[in-house]
Amino acid sequence: MTFDMPFLILSVLCSVLVSVLLKLAQRRGLAMPAILFWNYVIAVLLCAWWLDPPLQRLHEAGTPWPALLLLAVLLPTIFLAMAASVKAAGIVRTDVAQRLSLVVSLLAAFAWFGESADAMKLFGLGLGVLAIPAIVSRSRGESAGEQRRAWGLPLAVLFGYAGVDILLKHIAAAGTPFAASLFVAFSGALVIMLGVLIVTRVRGTLRLDRGALLFGLLVGASNFANILFYIKAHRALPDNPAVVFATMNLGVVVLGTLVGVVAFREKLARINIVGLVLAIVAVATIAASLG
C-alpha cells in the first residue's frame, strides 16, 4: 500500500500545534476573544483561497441552514472551551478528550445515520467510554473548583467536537459541499467573535495588542492546515480511510501526550495513564473495524 504520509504527519503536527499555541498565548496573558477573532479571519480567507467553496450550491432547496448556523455558533464556543481546557487540564487531557469525541459521534452514527454496529466497533466504543472518566480524573489534592474545571472542560471539548462531527455528517447527508459548509461556518463564527470583541471592548475588559493578532493568525493557519492536510490525506488514500483515521487520531493522542509531558511538564496520575492506554486501544479498534 502506498500513500502520501507527509499529509498525515502535517495534519497531526498542526492539530497539536493549535493546543500548544493556545497554551503559550495564555502564559503571555493574551486576550482569547481577540485571538479567536483573528483565527477566524485567516480561516475564512484561507478557506476561500484554497478550497474555492461552491457557494452557489447554498441556494439549492434543502440546504440545512439551521445546522449550518448551529455549527457557526458551536465552533467558537468549543474553541473557547478548548482554550480553557488547555489552561485548566493541560494539553494531554484536552487533545485526548478531543479525539475521544469519536465515541459520541459514532454512537450518534448508529442512532441517526444508519451506521452498522458490529462486535469490533462496540468493543472499541466500550473501551472509549471507559477511557473518558479515566482521562479527565484529577488529583484529590485540588480544590473542588479546580477539579470541576479540570474534568468539566475536557468533557465540554469532547461533547463539543462530537457535536461538530454530527452536524457535519447531517450537512453532508443533505448534499451540501464540505467547502461551502466550512466557509459558512467560519464566516458565521467570525461574525460572532466580532460581536464578542465589540461588547468586551465597550465594557473596557478587552486589551487589544499585536500579540493577540500574531497568535490568532498562527492558530487560524494551523487549524485550517490541519483540516486541509486531513482532506488531502483522504484523497491520497481513497480506498483506505481507516489508515487516515487511525494515524490522525492516534498521532494526535501520542504527540499531544509527549508535548504535554515533556515540553510543559504536565503530570499524569496512574488513572490518567490507564485512560490514555484505553483511548489508544479504543481508537485502534474502531479504526480496524472501519477497514
Automatic annotation (TrEMBL):
Q: Which UniProt keywords apply?
A: Membrane, Transmembrane, Transmembrane helix
**EamA domain sequence ranges:** 7-132
Q: Which SUPFAM superfamilies match?
A: Multidrug resistance efflux transporter EmrE (SSF103481)
Name the residues that span the membrane: 6-24, 31-51, 63-84, 96-113, 119-138, 150-172, 178-199, 211-231, 243-264, 271-290
GO CC annotations on file: membrane
| InterPro entries named among the record's database cross-references | EamA_dom, EmrE-like
The protein, known as: EamA-like transporter family protein
> What's the source species for this entry?
Pseudoxanthomonas indica
